[in-house]
Design a protein that fits this description.
Helix content: 40-55%
Strand order of the largest sheet: 1-2-3-8
CATH superfamily of the largest domain: P-loop containing nucleotide triphosphate hydrolases
Number of domains: 4
CATH class of the largest domain: Alpha Beta
CATH architecture of the largest domain: 3-Layer(aba) Sandwich
Number of helices: 15
Strand content: 15-25%
CATH topology of the largest domain: Rossmann fold
Largest sheet: 4 strands, mixed
Distance between the termini: 109 Å
Length: 492
């Protein structure tokens, strides 16, 4: 065959690629390649160390006898494929968990053969998903999970609780509820905060919870120093676990709120002037630490405190993790069994809690098992309200002022008048110096009260804003206590 009859290298590569791979785009315009019959998709422009489409294309061409091609031919072929894929239907890619057809959800086991767990209304199965139903995205943070055991009769949950040092039964049921919530891709879950005395095994307990979802390679990490690095870590995995926190700066606290309930970041695309890159994220978050200082009210509503106690008997790391790895298939199987039961249970949706989806999950868990998770969740949030109040002198001063109001009384003043009133109450007759961070203007006071509004309402003090024909005002109300439940006289 003459050189004129030979097909150009880029055409050989493009034909081979379109025969052996399916190409599609996501909503943000990224083009992915998916090997025929396999659920894992890779961005065609990725150069990551976890495996790129360029590498698998080169290996496929070589193994099938097409030879080795230079970089220019590969680039030209991939440029053409990327352009053609932009006209294909949009399909999302998922990390670790994904929604499926007919109300099912999927759990990626991280295996090379693509086998995954399909959780459906009547049970769960280990199958390879249809690539058009689920497209998995893998990163270096995607660890491999063992095949979960069938017919465990709940033994795995008992084994997990025996390995962890949770202080109370209420803490145990909240940890189980959080794990079930991690298997639901569309529901935000509060961030567990593992706390306890030094030596209580907070980091070990956090690793166990993470590795049930992320595999034995999952681990805790230090909080990054800037927002961009934390978002990059969040986007590359499913559960983000931050270890040994001792202080939460306001920016980090706000970012954690966004991670739990979902947000989007936009930044300029590299090597462009006008193009942007969009990144949406909502991930399960886990924290450990003895004490993080003052907790802001908006983050407190998104936290799930899990207290641990010091173990009576110490074990070596090697012995502990060897046992955990051995029983992980049982733990995962029991968790999947319980997840199916909980999703099938019917329960009312609590309408008074910020994280209503998780509160509903707790109510379903109670209906399926009778554990009392919803009551434990309410008690945990009540404790967090106490922590917020103890760390905020303004909240303490407002409650002190409200204690002097008659039940059902309303008091209206402008923000400046409220600032003068509360400042005088705090300073007292001795003119005690004001603490750092005390509001200096009426506007600053109004903004602080808006943050504290849910916390104060939980303690029976309602704060609202309004306007008259001449000025704006802040209204403080102490509603009357609810009447005691009617006690029915005993029948004789």
């Amino acid at each position: 065959m003459s050189d004129d009859d030979k097909a150009p290298a880029r055409e050989v590569i493009a034909d081979y690629a379109q025969t052996h791979f399916r190409y599609f785009r996501t909503a943000d315009g990224t083009v992915y390649a998916q090997k025929n019959g396999h659920p894992v998709a890779r961005p065609i422009r990725s150069q990551g160390t976890s495996g790129s489409h360029r590498q698998e294309l080169m290996v496929g061409l070589f193994n099938d006898g097409h030879g080795v091609f230079n970089g220019t031919a590969l680039k030209e072929a991939l440029d053409l494929i990327e352009a053609l894929a932009m006209s294909q239907d949009v399909q999302p890619v998922h990390i670790r968990v994904a929604p499926g057809f007919d109300g099912a959800t999927w759990l990626d086991l991280g295996r090379n053969d693509g086998q995954s767990v399909r959780i459906h209304p009547t049970g769960w199965d280990i199958v390879t998903p249809d690539p058009r139903e689920v497209c998995w995205r893998r990163t270096q943070l995607t660890g491999e999970l063992p095949l979960p055991a069938k017919d465990t009769d709940g033994k795995g949950i008992d084994l997990l609780l025996r390995l962890c040092n949770f202080a109370t039964a209420e803490t145990e049921c909240l940890a189980i509820a959080w794990l079930i919530g991690c298997l639901e891709p569309s529901v935000p879950v509060p961030a567990p905060f593992l706390t306890g005395p030094q030596g209580a095994g907070k980091s070990t307990g956090g690793r166990m919870l993470v590795r049930i979802i992320e595999g034995m390679s999952g681990d805790l990490r230090r909080a990054p120093k800037d927002e961009e690095n934390l978002i990059a870590a969040v986007a590359a995995g499913w559960v983000t676990a931050l270890d040994n926190l001792s202080h939460l700066a306001p920016d980090l606290s706000d970012l954690m709120c966004c991670i739990v309930t979902g947000a989007e970041t936009i930044k300029r695309a590299l090597y462009t002037d006008g193009d942007v890159v969009r990144a949406r994220y909502r991930r399960p978050l886990l924290l450990t630490g003895i004490d993080v200082g003052v907790i802001r009210p908006d983050l407190a509503e998104r936290l799930l405190p899990l207290r641990l106690e010091r173990p009576r008997t110490r074990r070596t790391e090697a012995e502990l993790w060897a046992e955990f790895e051995e029983v992980l298939p049982l733990i995962l199987g029991s968790l999947l069994d319980l997840t199916v039961q909980v999703r099938a249970a019917e329960a009312d949706i609590p309408t008074d809690l910020r994280m209503a989806d998780f509160a509903h999950l707790c109510a379903q868990l109670d209906a399926a098992t009778g554990l009392g998770a919803l009551g434990a969740y309410r008690a945990a949030l009540d404790d967090l309200n106490d922590d917020v109040i103890e760390g905020d002198l303004l909240a303490q001063t407002v409650l002190k002022h409200a204690a002097g109001l008659d039940a059902g009384a309303e008091q209206r003043m402008t923000s400046t008048e409220w600032l003068h009133c509360l400042t005088g109450l705090y300073s007292g007759e001795g003119c005690r110096p004001l603490p750092k961070g005390w509001p200096t203007t009426g506007k600053v006071l109004s903004d602080r009260l808006k943050r504290l509004q849910p916390t104060l309402a939980a303690r029976g003090v309602l704060v609202d804003w309004g306007r008259t024909s001449t000025a704006r005002y802040i209204e403080m109300t102490r509603p009357p206590a609810p009447p005691p439940p009617h006690e029915q006289a005993p029948a004789f």
